[in-house]
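The authors assume throughout that readers already know how a fold can be written as discrete tokens. In essence, backbone conformation is discretised, so a fold becomes a row of integers matching the chain in length. A single example would do more here than another paragraph of explanation. For illustration, here is how one protein appears when written out as sequence plus structure tokens:

…
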Amino acid sequence: MPLESSGDGFCSGIFAPVVVVLVGGGYESLKAACQRLESKVPVVVVNDTGPAANLIAETYKKFITARNKGSTVMSVIQLES
């Protein structure tokens, strides 16, 4: 019998780790991934599988590269504009 989840990582009083795996996807998948991240749910993104996953993976790579060079988040955003 599957455990019922309340969406916050708890299932019938038992803690159950939750992770989202994003493979491919479109607008709705991108929106769902963002909502999960805002809720502190980890999202594993598989690059080169489709539009939503590729967008998140490439954005993350650009952010990490810029951060390693000492740039701030705002300067990364401004570079993309």
User: Anything to note?
Assistant: The mean pLDDT is 80. The first helix runs from residue 27 to 38.
